[in-house]
Design goal:
It is a single chain. The protein is built from seven helices and six strands; from the N terminus they run ααααβααββββαβ. Helix 1 packs across helix 4 and helix 3 packs antiparallel against helix 4.
Length: 196
């Protein structure tokens, strides 16, 4: 069975009612941590899977599952919007030319406009991506939208890097699948998007 994040949480909650250690282990082995959108939850679930063999004590495994459900509830209560940023996007803000108040404010404003107006915001399509804003702007974001949310792939503040990306995207040398490590954009503290 292929689990979604929501299915997995329901199943884990149900497993707390089981007293058969082997059955619990068998079900957990069928769950892939990658189904969790939040990177911290992914990490916590990997810890559950790594620790589930420490002892054949059913109460031990139920306890670590219960702790995981508590962690999940904390994230669920934050009620994030369906805006995500890639690992590549987040890593750009570790560079000194991105990590300053002026740059952060500019990209925060761009994201705010994109989530408010979606592809009605001045946007051009390049390969599989929207590029906003359109025109001769220094600050731009490569992004896309699906029924499951808005995905911010990569920010640009350099014309040469932007032009290189566009050439590669036009020739299908870079695609959506090249971006990974998705997490809620609001969880990315440098941009303080939770305040939007």
């Amino acid at each position: 069975m292929v689990f979604t994040e929501e299915d997995a949480i329901k199943v884990i909650k149900n497993l707390l009612n089981f007293n058969d250690y082997n059955k619990i282990i068998q079900v957990l082995k069928g769950m892939n941590p990658e189904i969790f959108k939040n990177k911290e939850l992914k990490k916590k679930f990997k810890e559950v899977l790594a620790n589930m063999y420490n002892t054949e004590n059913v109460n031990y495994i139920k306890n670590i599952l219960s702790e995981f459900i508590k962690e999940y509830s904390k994230y669920e209560q934050r009620s994030y919007h369906l805006w995500f940023c890639s690992n590549q996007f987040r890593n750009k803000f570790k560079k000194s030319d991105f990590n300053n108040p002026g740059e952060i404010k500019r990209f925060r404003d761009l994201i705010r406009k994109i989530v408010e107006l979606k592809n009605s915001y001045p946007t051009e399509t390049i390969g599989e991506f929207f590029m906003s804003p359109r025109g001769h702007e220094r600050h731009r974001i490569a992004w896309y939208m699906t029924s499951s949310g808005i995905y911010f792939c990569e920010p640009f503040n350099d014309h040469e890097e932007y032009d290189n990306f566009c050439d590669r995207a036009r020739h299908d040398d870079i695609k959506r699948k090249n971006y990974s490590g998705w997490d809620y954009a609001e969880a990315f503290s440098p941009l303080n998007l939770a305040a939007i």
